[in-house]
Amino acid sequence: MRRNSILYVASSVFMASLALPAAATVFDFDDGTSQGWTVELLNPGGGPFGAGWSDINNYPSAPRTDPADGSNGSAFTAGGAWDGTDGFRIVQFISPDLTGDTMWQNLESFSGQLLPSFQSITPGAYFANALLVIDDTTGGGSVERTFANGTADGIGTDMWNLESFTGIDTLLAGTGVSSYTTNQVVFQIFSNSELDSETFYALDDVTPTAASTGPGGSDTVPVPEPGSIALISLGLAGLLCARRRREPGA
């Protein structure tokens, strides 16, 4: 009788565990580092610069209010002075290589918290979107492809903004992808400020959600507006240039 009770309890715990969502590899930047993320700055006359770590900016705390304790923080980069009359400034937060991370494969969605902030000026409008870089292995091939989440949405300044890429399995299935490896994810912030000075950008709480099946599903993917298409094209071109600069011999 006791043995049957133990088996019943064990089986109940096992069945309950099946109903729980799988643990995800979250980039929380709470170890004093940027956790392998890099930053690219793309704008007329601009160039690449590295990612740092911010101790005083940590989601969900208000900007510059988190205690400087050397632990909780966010990936961070400073904007510096820039005259935005020549076009958009694009800041890209680029993940480390995710090919060996099982929780970033077979995605349904991923999200992150973005913070464009300023200290002494009122900037212009900010927009953001996300990119997914995969190795398409459908049919035994191997082709690198980049997908955007369809829009470049306006985001608030001096506050955390949730940026999500949802319906990934549906999007990939709709483009004929049946087998793939997630290489990287990218978050982009676009600024058209007339004077983008003393501005910084932060990223925190980057989280994946696994799909219940392979590529496919019932979610819909928003169709980008013409203005959004232009921003996405700029970002994709910049990402390609940035990747080429990092390749040996490029």
Explain what this protein looks like in three dimensions.
It contains three helices and eleven strands. The protein has 250 residues and is α+β, with helices and mostly antiparallel strands. The protein has one domain: Jelly Rolls (Sandwich), CATH 2.60.120. Strands 1, 4, 6, 7, 8 and 10 form a six-stranded antiparallel beta sheet that branches. Strand 6 and strand 7 form a beta hairpin.
Counting helices, strands and paired strands, the structural category is alpha+beta
In the CATH scheme, what's the topology name?
A: Jelly Rolls
Count the E strands. Answer: 11
Our measurement of the CA-to-CA distance between the termini, rounded to an integer number of angstroms, reads: 71 Å
Low-confidence stretches: 1-24, 216-226
Keywords:
5-stranded antiparallel beta sheet, 6-stranded antiparallel beta sheet, 3 helices, 18% helix, Jelly Rolls, 250 residues
Q: What is the topology?
A:
Blueprint: H1 2-19, E1 38-42, E2 52-54, E3 74-78, E4 89-94, E5 107-118, E6 126-136, E7 143-148, E8 153-155, E9 161-165, H2 168-174, E10 180-191, E11 199-210, H3 226-246
Antiparallel strand pairs: 1-4, 2-3, 3-11, 4-10, 5-9, 5-11, 6-7, 6-8, 6-10
